[in-house]
Write a structure and sequence with these properties.
The chain is an alpha/beta fold. It is 49% helix and 15% strand. The chain has 16 helices and 15 strands. Helix 6 packs across helix 8, helix 10 packs across helix 15 and helix 11 crosses helix 14. It is globular.
Amino acid sequence: MNAVIYARYSSDKQTEQSIEGQLREGYAYAERMGITVVGEYIDRAVSGTSDQRPDFQRMISDSIKRQFEAVIVWKLDRFARNRYDSAIYKSKLKKNGVRVFSVTEGIGDGDESIILEAVLEAMAEVYSKQLGQNAARGMRETAMKGLCTGGQIPLGYAVGEDHKLHIDSKTAPAVQLIYTLYADGQSKTQIANELNSRGFRTKTGKPYNCNSFYRILTNPMYYGNYTYKGEVLRECPAIISKALYDKCQERNDVVKRSRGMKISEVEWLLRGKLYCGHCGTQMTGDSGTSRTNEKYYYYTCHKHKRYKDCDKKSEKKEQLERAVCQKTVEYVLREDRIEYIAERVVEQYEKEFDASTIKEKETSLSKLNIELDKCAESLMNTTVRSVVDRINARAEELEAAKSELEHELAQLRITSKARITVDEIITFLRGFCSGDVDDIQFRRKIIDTFINAVYVFDDKYVIYYNVRDCKQVTYSDMLASIHAPSDMSVHGSDCLLYGEPEKSP
């Protein structure tokens, strides 16, 4: 697993030394867990009560590139102090295959706050669909009129005073060259080198690289088809011919098929929450191939795999994940527990949710509008092409940020008005009871919401749940708890001892 470390200190009581300590602890945690740290994101003298932190936002944006699968923080309040922001940004990271790990708060993510985050995330998703449908109708009408719908303008085009797309004589040749060279069989690296040698640059003014061409080489707009949400709405100025576009798509299909043979999309649902019962080390994904070339997937103790210093046997991935989810449905999602959890979640919501987040985002939106006004004023006062291009590029970035912020603010306003009740939480939790443990999406939802940690022995396994106030559960705590079956929850989270997974699916 590749990970990045996010460190932050606020301007009131902490100093630069705080950053050094957070990084040191983060690297030590990664070493213990067998995680490779590939980068750092650091915000100095910035409060965690706001999400407008430069490196934090850069980290969220960079997660789209899928170069890392985890974010390590010293404490979860380094990530976000506001529960709504925490839910939303964890959701964004999750969509990009990234999870958040805390160094000092031990295994799992904590208490019933995790269930609250799951509820907020589900609510935000519903409101997002509603808002998205309303916005899409307006955007589609705009597009059908031949007007620009905003967002990033494709390379090779510019928006005229009539708010319509026109071919940009300065950048359109770059598009033509990309398609011609790709159709001739040149690699993306060769194409990037050729463009850079001729002085061409990307929309953001940076040199091209092999990752610069995916959207360009799959955009039907370049041969004259303006599409919105996959629907062809009208014609637009063509930069290349339809025949050249089709030739490049044929090559894309060949490349996809060849790569598809090499890439194995395996999702390790218990990753980051599964620990060896023999030594306490995290268990990681592993695989093997039988004599008949059939692939098998396992969870293996990191210490055993890397150092041969533990005698824990590997566990079959599919069987263990299914057993954990099945036991969770049977144990946690009982009617008496559902009511208890719902009451705790509402208490947490009332304690943590306030209107300050709305005010923060309104302030941020106001600042964006002010900067956009400055861009417009600057454009009126200059005719230098290079300066105009830079201002337009910045204005596009600001418009994109403004659109996203307005969307989040609308979600938040709706959520703040619709106060969460115990009955709503009960309905949400009962939705898990009818799920299918053989459905991968249902399993993911169960594990993300309820599972704090799982310790696996060769003959038994212990599951800790996020259903009551959870303190750090150490390996020694776990060992003590399994010898106290009369009170399995003495160390925080409810935990339950089960028999061997293979014998108790």
